[in-house]
Amino acid sequence: MGSTKQEQPVEHNARPQAVLAGFMVRFAAALYDLGIIFALAFLVFIPVTMAEQSLGEMPQWIKGMLALTVFWAYFVGFWTRTGETTGMRPWRLTVVMANSGDIPSLAAASIRFAVLMATWLAAGFILLSMLTGKTQNTAYATVALLPFISLVCLALTEKRQALHDLLAGVIVVRRNTV
Predict the structure, then answer these.
(1) Which of 82, 65, 155 is closest to 117 using CA atoms?
(2) CA angle 100-101-104, nearest 5°?
(3) What are phi and psi of 80, to 5 degrees?
(4) What's the CA angle centered on 22, arms 18 and 25, to 5 degrees?
(5) Is 131 exposed, middle or buried (0-12, 13-18, 19+ CB in 10 A)?
(6) Mean of the pLDDT values across residues 3-19?
(7) Is 4 strand, coil or helix?
(8) Does residue 149 form part of some domain?
(9) Radius of gyration for the chain, computed over Cα atoms and rounded to the nearest angstrom
(10) Which of 87, 97, 124, 133 is 20 to 30 Å apart from 80, CA to CA?
(11) In which domain, by residue range, is 27 found?
């Protein structure tokens, strides 16, 4: 026999090629999740409001930390358990590690959450500035860069990774239903 190239055996349990999620489906999932976390925060703050009526007002920073903890638990909990939040399920989206396809680690999910929250807060600030007409200042221009950079990353990266995905080392894929 000569020295011909032999075909590589195909692994039957190999992962299928991932179908990357686009902007619009990710945006729809984000809106769904946004509604869920606001409802969740509302439910969490009912007892806080009741306690404040009896004990006096709680410092704002404690309320902020409580809200942030609830949001972190929701997103990071789902991402590290199943790779998907409730808002991602109707569109069959899953967050996976870009290099292995595994469910994100706690560290990766936490990094993704932190950058995602910074981006959402920046987008909220931009919207508020636009609604109040206060867009002619340095703070507006500086903060506007974060969501813009994230969208540029999503549009230009090969794996359609927003800034929070790049920094966490994850990708968002669509599950196959077949």
Answers:
(1) 65
(2) 95
(3) -85, -15
(4) 110
(5) exposed
(6) 51
(7) coil
(8) yes
(9) 21
(10) 124
(11) 19-174
In a domain, 98, yes or no: yes
Beta bridge partners of 94: 173
If we measure between CA atoms, which residue out of 119, 120, 100, 117 comes closest to residue 170? Answer: 100
CA–CA distance, 165 with 19 (Å, rounded to integer) = 16
How far apart are alpha carbons 171 and 95 in whole angstroms?
6
**Tokens linked to 49:** 């409001």
Please count the structural domains in the chain.
Answer: 1
As given in the structure block, the two tokens for residue 159 are 């794996």
Residue 40 belongs to a domain: yes
Burial of 159: CB neighbours in 10 Å, binned 0-12, 13-18, 19+: middle
Predicted structure pTM score: 0.81
- Residue at 50 is within a domain: yes
Residue 7: its pLDDT value, please?
Answer: 43
Ramachandran sector of residue 21 (left: φ over 0; alpha: ψ -120 to 50; beta: rest): beta
